[in-house]
User: What shape does this take?
Amino acid sequence: MAQAVPAEQKWWSGGKSPFNLEYGKLMMWYFLMSDAFTFGAFLISYGTIRFASNGWPDPNKVFQSFPGLGSGYPLAFVSLMTFILIISSVTMVLAVQAGHAMDKKAVVRNLILTIIGGLAFLSCQAWEWTHLHHEGAWWGSNPFLNADGTKASTNFTNFFFTITGFHGFHVFSGVIINIIMLIMTLNDVFERKGHYLMIEKAGLYWHFVDLVWVFVFTCFYLI
Amino acid sequence: MSNEATLYGHSEVVTTHDVHHDEHHGHHHKETFITKYVFSQDHKMIAKQFLLTGIIWAIIGGLFSVLFRLQLGYPDQTFPILEELLGKWAAGGKIQPEFYYALVTMHGTVLVFFVLTAGLSGTFANFLIPLQIGARDMASPFMNMLSYWFFFLASIIMVSSLFVQTGPASGGWTSYPPLSALGDASEGSKAGMDLWLVAMAMFVVSTLLGGLNYVSTILNMRTKGMSMTRLPLTIWALFFTAVLGILSFPVLFSGFILLLFDRHAGTSFYLSDIFLASTQKALPNEGGSAILYQHLFWFLGHPEVYIILLPAMGMASEILSTNSRKPIFGYMAMIASLFAITVLAFLVWAHHMFVTGLNPFLGSFFVLLTLLIAVPSAIKVFNWLTTIWRGNLRFTPGMLFALGFVSLFISGGLTGIFLGNSTLDIHLHDTYFVVAHFHIVMGVASFFGMFAGIYHWFPKMYGRYLNNTLAFIHFWITLVGAYLIFWPMHYEGLAGMPRRYLDFSGWASFNQFGGLNRFISIVTMIVFAVQLLFVFNFFYSMFKGRRVTSQNPWGSNTLEWTTQINPGHGNWEGEIPEVHRWAYDYGKDGRDFISQTEPVGADESKH
Amino acid sequence: MHFMENIQEITHHHSFDREAGKKEVIRVTVILTVFTLIELALGFWLMGIEAQFMRHLIKGVICILMLAKAFYIVGYFMHLKHELRNMIMTIVVPLLLFFWFIIAFLADGNSYKNLKNKYDPYHLEQSKTKVEAPAHEGGEHPDAKKEGSKE
Assistant: This one.
């Protein structure tokens, strides 16, 4: 435990938070729990349908294009997207830490970097969606064959667009939240409050988006 | 909202704020009609909003059951008045088949979600949590207000679906695809289904906003001395209810999103190998699984049963103990069994799917886990019985309904043991036996818990009592009526009579139940009329009821009775009281009751 | 809102050392990067492997790495490891539900496939029939909604 807490502290006796957390952060955590079950349900549904199918397309044949280079580069573009999101998560942590130290300048710098990272990720996703759409993939239409050369159902693309779309929607709302945080920081809202706890909550949300991507990346592109 | 402002405060500072707050109480709270009654952020007012909306929904949902019971009881008669009122849905004075399905569907949806989820835990979690744990309000009053208004929005959308030309959703309250996914499959699968899904999505948002608030309030905002093991059992029950909602509703939400895509984006998440009789066409959809939807639905659906039941259990515990003038028996066992029920609620969902194509081997695990629920349920029942055993029972209306709750929970719970067995389910599934089981154990029992809560806390809500004579009439007719309605259904179900059928007169094997069905329908109408009597009592007493003259009319230990008779926003005039003991010191050391706020005496015996 | 005394004291992490924090972030970033690179390497390796057992083994390793990454993100980036034990428990314990959630769903998905293959031989036969690869590079732009739609 980072903070100096007396060992005999009675956390549950009432009159204080048993977690030493203010309610907002607690709520954000439990909201993310709930959201984890939303994403969990999507990904488990995807797994269920995949287990219920005799064949499934090979992701390396589907996702093999890189902007400007053409096709034949499996895993390359999605690696780029993954790293963009990891780096934006790092800048977000740095923003939160700067908030702890009441270092407004560093907060602003790191928030801007995070927002750029988020927008970069969204652009990548937009490019990938457009590219797949041009190949004939969309909700209800799947041009790709199963890995063994048999005809595939449309559920590969159905799940891909639904789940990455839902994740992209989260990235988008995360970017909006971060922009609001940036404006509030620039207007000295947190300086006046005396703490940057709002940024911590926005940070939790942003890391959660990154966390979900770890699972989406594995489930759709790797295995 | 800006609660964080005092984050750095220490306890002394906190006290200063308290005083400060009270000095300014008068100036800060010049409230307009809008902020006081409509967009109120006071948890007590939000609770009343949930309750009133719930009552309206209960009348609508109950009326639906009267309508379809009319059809079931008198399948060969016509009622021209129905055609006057309902038009084409009751052409020739007979309930039409499509409308019958719509009635059954909306009856289920309305009562399960809008009455027994929002109306029950929405009302009592909002009302009781801050009052019983010693908090001024919820953690986020603003989100709490939003929770109600999302519920209101969901209600508006659901009501509007009743008026679309093709009628409301009619694929059953579970909305199984492919029926619910294909607009061509039935009238009710068209616009009504979309509105149903959107309304339910709004409902999930409302539950989430409320649930997050309930959980963080209970964890974070307890007053000094109110440790978790001093909480009244109502709060424990509402806590687990909120946890169930937070973790299971999102799964339903995902399931609904996939269903919406299947309806409108040409996907096949749930669809495969379909030939549609209505259009004489084979559909191109392939690769989906209708069972997947059932899994997603029941992953919520089963916890939902406990979302409905747990608040009733909590309130019954509190009311039984208070009115027996005895401590609750096995307080820790009660908490443990609530916890066990919460955990098991998440592990047993597929027992609703034993005969829908679920792998039978997997089903056997679900049988085992399902039957395990009998253990915590039995613990609770025995603890309630031992609580009232040799107590000084006071038969207030609240107490009567709490006792009725225990009776119904036992009767309905026992048939659950039958249905939990996948082999017996081969015979019993989709019969009136199932209808009888879940109506008694979850429907009527939870209603009794809700009525118990309303009778018990009405004096705190409105500063007046409900009329006792009307309450006794309400109780006895409802209890006897509920058994008369649902008990015979067990026999019909054992004989194989299927649920959701419009008319049984065509079957020789079910013809014998014609008289019984008519009897059930008559009782239904009487019981429904008595509920209207309750509604009358509710509104009459709100304005004209006998006034409450003392702060603590029931001689209760919990904190809500230390507030003024009509507490304002903020609940306590002065400081929030500190708590020194658990909530159940009744009949201790020769004293009738000892409030939680009283310090433990030096020579006091242990409980 | 005005009910300020609802917020009880929160001891603060002000003692918290920014330099140490930065070091930790760098360490975790390196770990996440390395794990991702291993995952990618395994992914490339997977492309050339036919043996089913080996494929499943590699996929298993990838899943373990995925969980390890999740652990580092939640534990360090989201700071959960530095919260009180009580808090950690309220987050971790409910997540255990995912075990049965995943096992039951996937097991039933698998059973659905087997039952369908057994009782619908035409389906099985179809799913074994190889088809010509459609020329999807041709930039055709089918109106997707029509193709799979129910009408």
